[in-house]
Amino acid sequence: xxxxxxxxxxxxxxxxxxxxxxxxxxxxxxxxxxxxxxxxxxxxxxxxxxxxxxxxxxxxxxxxxxxxxxxxxxxxxxxxxxxxxxxxxxxxxxxxxxxxxxxxxxxxxxxxxxxxxxxxxxxxxxxxxxxxxxxxxxxxxxxxxxxxxxxxxxxxxxxxxxxxxxxxxxxxxxxxxxxxxxxxxxxxxxxxxxxxxxxxxxxxxxxxxxxxxxxxxxxxxxxxxxxxxxxxxxxxxxxxxxxxxxxxxxxxxxxxxxxxxxxxxxxxxxxxxxxxxxxxxxxxxxxxxxxxxxxxxxxxxxxxxxxxxxxxxxxxxxxxxxxxxxxxxxxxxxxxxxxxxxxxxxxxxxxxxxxx
Length: 356
Known about the structure:
Layout: H1 13-16, E1 38-42, H2 53-59, E2 64-68, H3 81-92, H4 95-103, E3 106-109, H5 112-115, H6 127-137, E4 154-158, E5 165-169, E6 180-181, H7 183-188, E7 193-194, H8 205-216, E8 222-227, H9 245-258, E9 263-267, E10 273-278, E11 286-291, E12 318-324, E13 329-335, E14 341-348
Parallel strand pairs: 1-2, 2-3, 5-8, 8-9, 9-11
Antiparallel strand pairs: 1-12, 4-5, 6-7, 10-11, 12-13, 13-14
Helix pairs in contact: 2-4, 3-6
């Protein structure tokens, strides 16, 4: 494991003010307002397990860290808000995580296990209490917009004109309709959902859909859209946007209608790392980086992955989005405990625009 020699993150407090978990201690090597070049992402962190990979992330010098859900595990039934608060408290004392959070600005979303119920959605009766605990742990200020509306979705734009990165963090729990269980779930109680074409069902809810359209109309060169569950992935029956296919089609149409260039999806949840590409029914080729293996990746994972690029990463890992503004390229990388690249895909900015 590389030594944690990078003391503080380089992004400016002014450019990143209000980000969840932002607490820079001293000036870094990048000037205030500089464009983002390295964005780390990770998910599925069991607060009871060792977390050495956070030290690797810190040594990798990210400008921003995205915590993509299941940031703690507190979904045992019956739900207890005390259990969730205790999980956050224990996580706050993990040395590697604490150093990373203090040094590097961050944004966070939740998934089911820090929401409070496995595979849960709009029906979860304790979501208000879970939200309060989430905002407290991620140090949301008193005036944070999330405190005044349902859910925990938010968006921020970093960098100057010409090098703007918009991070759109979606809430795929608070408003989401129930999923349709298939025969596998009926038999085993795990996974086993099947696509449900019911037009009355929603992934984001009306208010969040309206907000998302407004965000996609904001000027930006690149847009990282963060979803707790996978967006593009096919070939498995666990939670994913494909369980509500009309909602995923709506998402594709929205990207097309708003003419939002530069959309790339980031996700977690699956306890594997993977990269996906989808060009059918989309305004331009869409890519997704799934990074889900901070403490307990799924070593035996398997999926057909018809739109996956390359193999699954089944070991401890984190994701890194690396932007080369001079060459106009974006690298999606999955990196292991030593910081080595296990899988990557490089995208030219020119791919991420509407077809003519």
